[in-house]
What we know:
Elements: E1 10-15, H1 20-35, E2 43-49, H2 55-69, H3 77-84, E3 87-91, H4 100-114, E4 119-124, H5 131-140, E5 150-154, H6 162-175, E6 181-183, H7 191-201, E7 215-223, H8 232-236, H9 239-257, H10 266-279, H11 285-291, E8 292-295, E9 297-298, E10 300-302, E11 305-307, E12 325-331, E13 341-347, E14 354-361, E15 381-387, E16 391-399, E17 407-415, H12 416-419, H13 427-437, H14 446-465, E18 474-475, H15 482-489
Parallel strand pairs: 1-2, 1-4, 2-3, 4-5, 5-6, 7-13, 9-18
Antiparallel strand pairs: 7-14, 8-12, 10-11, 12-13, 14-15, 15-16, 16-17
Helix pairs in contact: 1-2, 1-13, 5-6, 6-14, 9-10, 9-14, 10-14
The structure holds NADP nicotinamide-adenine-dinucleotide phosphate (NAP).
NADP nicotinamide-adenine-dinucleotide phosphate is lined by residues 16-21, 24-25, 49-51, 92-95, 125-128, 155-157.
Active site: 248 (proton acceptor)
Catalytic activity: D-glucose 6-phosphate + NADP(+) = 6-phospho-D-glucono-1,5-lactone + NADPH + H(+)
Pathway: Carbohydrate degradation; pentose phosphate pathway; D-ribulose 5-phosphate from D-glucose 6-phosphate (oxidative stage): step 1/3
Amino acid sequence: MKTSLNVNPTIVVIFGGTGDLNLRKLAPALYNLYADGYMPEKYAIIGTARRPLTDEKFRENLMDGVNQFSRSGKVKQEKWNKFAENVIYNSVDVETPESFGLLKKSIEKLQKEFGPKTQVIYYLAVAPNLFPLIAKCLSDYGLAGNEDNCRIVIEKPFGRDLETAKELNCILTGIFTEKQIYRIDHYLGKETVQNIMAFRFANSFLEPLWNRTYIDHIQISVTEQLGVGDRGGYYESAGALRDMIQNHLLQLLCLIGMETPINFDADEIRNKKVDVLKAMRPFSPEDIRFSTVRGQYTKGWVEGKEVPGYRHETGVDPNSNTETFAAIKFFVDNWRWQGIPFYVRTGKRLFQTSSLITIQFKDVPHHIFPSGVTEHWQQNRLIISIQPEMSIRLQVQGKRPGLDMVLNPVDMVFDYKGTYSSDTPEAYETLLLDVMTGDQTQFMRADQVEAAWELLMPVINAWESKKSLSFPNYTADSWGPEDAEALIARDGFHWFALPLNKE
Ligand code: NAP
């Protein structure tokens, strides 16, 4: 077993302690950190929400969540009991500020017990409209601390447009310093996403090829087989642009597009990512017409079961104009990427659940083989698969065994599961540990969030102001609207997908 990290005593306060995020992600992550020896020696977890619960009942609920959702399966009872000794519950209605009094008492009692170096982490796992209120109450009750002893974690969505993101940044930075604020995008904590940095900047062969001279185009495709399920109410006011592209997909694009940082310092890495966002070509009305596609799913059959169209999901307007699919062609106007398209697509109720980054290299400058030999010719591709397969594939041409000279594409594969026997941690484990150790590398800085909103605002505004007449325009279990195929086909390419077993 690994030993505990040398982290100061830590109190984690979870607002939204009874919610879905805590039960499915945060509690399993904290328990696994404890089980793997990564929690500080002295720690406490305070769950808060409105409903009255005893500490015992709260622990029981968390244990059910861990048993159901943890990557490591059911808890080991003895270990759980020890972990849960440090878990308590405070009933706090953040809209009744006086209830912060109880929380203050609990925090101060623990601070006294743990000593002067105790740090407090506030995790805001509640609806976004409560973020400003909680920040203000923490400030009013003298709980906002300083850079050394207090951090606040803000869940996505961070604003619903540029204006609201700026407002929220303004409120938060009026109370906390930027060093205290952790804007979480759990995608960045995924093992395969973190490996993009390692792959790009720890291998010398790649950098000379990583530019417009050798790369033809790039695709980032995050597709989901599921529909909106019971999140229709939330999704109606979000849509694919806000829910996925503004954060997860643009963050992936930054990791692929960024220049080499001079060191692994959080701000240096974030500077390089912001540079990518700033270099992205703004959308003109013409670009929006020709370089963006929106879609909405209609009913269909998934694995033998009929599933409803988006407009018939619970909480969804029967005439909804919300997009459940988006595909966009971006350009990064700098020396490295000038003229190289980055195609990005995401959607719900698509044929496959997968997150893939495909880098297609340019063709060889001259074909020396006779045409019969190259029937299955394929330009080299580097395929980074984030999920469900965790792998990096380099597609190269190889000679098929036999007396004839026949070429076909073959994959050189680095597969996580085959290479490393250990279980990979969940994104939330990585990110919670980062918060405890004060590492902001994988968290979005204020300017990063605002730059991403600024880029997308013309598309968001255009899509909202002009209702789509073609919705619904793709069938559940398809690859999305035909226009998305046309978007990329016009440039002579097609969307790439790995032939995976369906999840
Ligand atoms: P949820 O299941 O609806 O939970 C909301 C939580 O907030 C509950 O614990 C609720 O408990 C509490 N709450 C509501 N009003 C309150 C008030 N006035 N004072 C104190 N507590 C209050 O939501 P969720 O799915 O966990 O999502 C929480 C946040 O995380 C949202 O911002 C969401 O966008 C984000 N997020 C969630 C996921 C996910 O997988 N669920 C993923 C990414 C981001 P009571 O009713 O007992 O007060």
